[in-house]
Amino acid sequence: MELRKDARQMRHRLAFAMPGFAQALAAFADMLPLAPGSVVGGYHALAGEADPKLLLEALAARGHTIAYPRVAARNHALDFHRVPKGDALRRGAYGLLEPAAHFPKVTPGLLLVPLLAYDAAGHRLGYGGGFYDRTIAALKVPAIGVAFSGQEMISLPVEAHDMALTGILTEHGLKRFS
Length: 178
Description:
Blueprint: H1 2-17, H2 21-26, E1 39-41, H3 53-61, E2 65-70, E3 79-82, E4 90-91, E5 97-98, E6 105-106, E7 110-113, E8 117-119, E9 124-125, H4 131-139, E10 143-146, E11 152-153, E12 167-170, E13 173-176
Parallel strand pairs: 1-2, 1-7, 7-10, 8-11, 10-12
Antiparallel strand pairs: 2-3, 3-6, 4-5, 8-9, 12-13
């Protein structure tokens, strides 16, 4: 899809132009709708992706549990696992870094979601596999997109299975969608 290709190229340009993005994002950790001790479903950023690493570290320092997604099966929701101290993520399905299947499985109370683009209505352009749409639908928890503000588009195509985001977190802070 040409839209995904264009959005990916834009995101790479933004990542290159904003080397301080991760630090700026981490400053907004307290803006996220989290109860004390919540489990946060994070992700390990791909090259050029909006990187939540420092945000996740800030959330962990505040007492939240960080879990990472794992592709358990095609056409299913993602599983989230806590990574035990001393262990690391490993290359899994689709070449992504993910937790091992035997790591403790947990249910996030909030999802941080990677994306290629988003619009003002909370729609996101993902990678086309539907994993996050199925996960958002299954978990029914707040889903916050993590993006560079320059990834916003006027509108995006929306299909029946597409799940809207609860909010978007950029270098400018958290914007909630109604």
